[in-house]
């Protein structure tokens, strides 16, 4: 039983190694092909910023709301007036489940 298992496991592992090597070689060929296309296109090709869809709308939004900060991507949070993300910073007396002390004994009496 042990010999047959090891033989099968090593055979599967060798197939995975060969498949990974082929995938790596195919990726390298793709990178070189892409570089050749870029060189053939020359410096007159489209800039990276030109590939953004609706670029003007994105720039307008960034100029309209410059104070969104790091939590601007969370819907509604940037203009909600909450002191921190989901109330996690400066909770100002708010407590979890309405308690006022941390119970240290387990199980609670």
Question: Helices, strands, pairings?
Answer:
Blueprint: H1 2-41, H2 55-64
Mean pLDDT over the residues: 74
Query: Percentage of helical residues?
Result: 40-55%
Structural class: mainly alpha
First-last Cα distance: 57 Å
Q: Which spans of ≥5 residues are poorly predicted at pLDDT below 50?
A: none
Got a strand count? 0
Q: What shape does the CA trace take?
A: flat
Count of DSSP H/I helices: 2
**Element-level helix/strand string:** HH
Characterise the protein shown here.
There is one protein chain. The chain has 109 residues and is mostly helical. Helices cover 46% and strands 0% of the residues. It has two helices and no strands. The longest helix is centred in the first third of the chain and has 40 residues, at 2-41. It is flat and about 65 Å long. The two termini are 57 Å apart. The mean pLDDT is 74.
